[in-house]
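User: structure tokens for this one?
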Amino acid sequence: MSTLDKARNKLQELTGRGRERLGGATGNESTQSQGQRDRIAGNLKGAGQKLKDAFRK
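Assistant:
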């Protein structure tokens, strides 16, 4: 897994966390759910890449 992929996945996760908190603080459910989707997608992509790395070794 390239370092760039790791950074992109982490950035997506962190952006999702921020959006989720912003939506919760403002009461905007749409923003909160978008943040939750982004956070989960970043986590899943990272987990998939870790699994690929494990089989390459």
